[in-house]
Write a sequence for this structure.
C-alpha cells in the first residue's frame, strides 16, 4: 500500500462514495429489524480501490442486514486531520483504517477481543494495534518494501538479485544495468516513501533486537541521539546517496511520480525501483504480465551486517471500528463485513485473488485462508518471511504525523537542498520531545 499514512494518506484514499442497494441472494441472512448503514473512510488504498468497491458491492448483495458505503477523505491531510472534524460533526465513520494514529484512536474505537476475526489473526500481527491491553484494530495484510526489480531487465544485464548482499555489489549491479542500455534505479522523491520507508531502513537496522531498536527511538525522543555519530546511519546515508547518484530520472516531487515510476519500470526503462509490493498489480498491468521481484536494499559493505539480506515486512494498516457514535447494529455490520471479507470464500477471492481475476493480491495472513499468494513478487515475499529474512517496520512506531516531516526533509536531501548532516539535524529536531507511545506512554 503506498503506504503510508503512506499510510495515513493511503487509508484516506480518495474514493467515490458508493451506495449499493442490497439485493436478495440465495444465501441471504435473515431479515433484520432495522437495516444498518455502515460507513468506511476510504478504500484501504488507491491502488486496489476498484477491487475493494467491487467487494463492497458483492457483500451488500450477499445479505439483507447491512449496507456498506465508502466515503472519501482528503489525501492531502493526515488520517487524524480527516477524522477529527468528522467526530466533531457527529458524523464519525463506522470503519476506519490507519497505522500511526492507533494510539490517538484507542479511546474512540471498540475492542476486537473476542471476535472471530481477531482470533484468526496471528498474534504477532496484532501486537502493534494492542494499546494498553485493548485490541483497537485487526490487520489488513502484510506488505513488504525494498528494491523492486524488472526480472527481464536484470536477466538481460546478467544480474542475479539473490547474489547482491552488500552496497558495493549493488553499485556493481547498477553499472551492469546501465551498461545494458537501461537506467539503473528509479528513486522516487515521494514524501511518504522517503518519510516512512526509506527512513525505516535506518531504524530497523539500528539494532539486531527489538528492544535495541526501541532504545534508539527513546534516545531520539530524549534528544540525546546524534545520528551522524552512528555508523549504521552513516551507512544508510551512503546508500541514500548511491541511489540518488544512479537515479534514472530527475527527482519529481509531484503526485505524478508514482505513476511515472510504474510506467518506466514496467517498460524496462529502469532495472530497480525502491518501493513496495503494493505496486505489483499496476506493474503487471502496465507490462501486460511481466515478472517483478523484490530484494533487500543492503546498506552496508559487510555482507554479514544485520538486515543486509532481509526485506522490510509489516502490517500496512489496521481496521478500527468506532465505539462512540455508532450504533450496536452498525458495529455488528462492520464486524460482519470485515469477517466476510477475510474469512469467507467469496471475500477471500477479493482479498487474495490475482489482479487478473479482480483480486487485491493481498498476502493472506488469517488462519483458515485457503487462497495462496499467486504472483511472482508475493511468492518471493513469502519465501523471505518463511526464511526469517525480514526486518521490522519501525515506522509503525513513528509519532503521528512524523513521517510527513521526515518525508519533507528527505525531499530536501534528494534534491540537494540540504546535505546529510543537515538532514540528520532535521530528523533529530523532529523527534525530540516525541511522546513515547512505543513504551505505552499516553498522549
Amino acid at each position: 500500500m503506498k503506504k503510508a499514512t503512506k499510510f495515513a494518506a493511503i487509508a484516506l484514499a480518495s474514493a467515490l462514495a458508493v451506495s449499493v442497494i442490497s439485493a436478495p441472494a440465495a444465501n441471504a441472512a435473515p431479515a433484520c429489524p432495522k437495516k444498518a448503514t455502515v460507513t468506511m473512510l476510504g478504500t484501504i488504498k488507491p491502488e486496489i480501490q476498484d477491487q475493494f468497491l467491487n467487494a463492497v458491492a458483492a457483500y451488500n448483495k450477499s445479505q439483507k442486514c447491512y449496507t456498506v458505503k465508502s466515503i472519501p477523505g482528503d489525501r492531502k491531510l493526515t488520517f487524524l486531520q480527516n477524522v477529527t472534524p468528522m467526530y466533531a460533526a457527529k458524523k464519525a465513520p463506522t470503519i476506519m483504517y490507519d497505522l500511526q494514529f492507533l494510539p490517538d484512536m484507542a479511546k474512540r474505537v471498540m475492542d476486537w477481543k473476542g471476535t472471530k476475526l481477531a482470533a484468526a489473526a496471528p498474534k504477532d500481527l496484532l501486537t502493534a494495534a494492542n494499546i494498553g491491553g485493548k485490541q483497537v484494530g485487526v490487520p489488513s495484510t502484510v506488505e513488504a518494501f525494498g528494491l523492486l526489480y524488472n526480472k527481464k531487465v536484470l536477466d538481460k544485464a546478467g544480474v542475479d538479485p539473490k547474489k547482491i548482499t552488500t552496497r558495493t555489489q549493488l553499485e556493481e549491479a547498477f553499472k551492469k544495468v546501465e551498461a545494458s542500455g537501461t537506467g539503473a534505479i528509479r528513486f522516487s522523491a515521494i514524501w511518504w516513501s522517503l518519510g516512512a520507508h526509506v527512513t525505516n531502513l535506518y531504524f530497523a537496522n539500528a539494532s539486531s533486537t527489538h528492544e535495541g531498536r526501541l532504545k534508539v527511538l527513546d534516545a531520539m525522543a530524549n534528544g540525546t541521539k546524534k545520528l551522524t555519530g552512528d555508523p549504521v546511519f552513516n551507512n544508510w546515508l551512503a546508500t541514500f546517496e548511491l541511489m540518488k547518484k544512479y537515479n534514472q530520472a530527475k527527482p519529481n516531487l509531484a503526485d505524478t511520480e508514482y505513476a511515472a515510476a510504474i510506467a518506466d519500470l514496467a517498460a524496462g526503462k529502469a532495472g530497480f525501483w525502491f518501493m513496495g509490493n503494493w505496486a505489483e498489480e499496476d506493474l503487471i498491468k502496465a507490462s501486460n504480465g511481466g515478472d517483478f521481484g523484490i530484494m533487500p536494499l543492503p546498506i552496508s559493505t559487510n555482507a554479514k551486517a544485520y538486515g543486509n539480506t532481509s526485506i522490510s515486512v509489516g502490517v500496512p494498516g489496521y481496521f478500527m471500528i468506532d465505539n462512540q457514535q455508532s450504533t450496536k447494529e452498525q458495529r455488528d455490520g462492520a464486524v460482519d463485513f470485515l469477517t466476510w471479507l477475510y474469512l469467507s470464500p467469496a471475500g477471500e477471492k477479493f482479498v487474495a485473488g490475482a489482479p487478473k481475476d479482480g483480486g487485491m493480491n493481498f498476502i493472506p495472513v488469517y488462519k483458515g485462508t485457503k487462497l495462496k499468494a499467486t504472483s511472482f513478487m508475493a511468492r518471493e515475499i513469502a519465501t523471505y518471511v518463511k526464511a526469517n529474512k525480514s526486518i521490522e517496520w519501525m515506522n509503525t512506531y513513528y509519532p503521528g504525523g512524523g513521517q510527513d516531516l521526515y518525508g519533507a526533509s528527505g525531499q530536501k536531501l534528494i534534491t540537494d537542498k540540504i546535505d546529510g548532516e543537515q538532514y540528520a539535524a532535521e530528523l533529530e529536531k523532529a523527534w525530540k520531545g516525541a511522546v513515547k507511545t512505543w513504551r505505552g506512554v499516553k498522549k
Observations:
- The mean pLDDT is 90.
- The first strand starts at residue 36 and ends at 41.
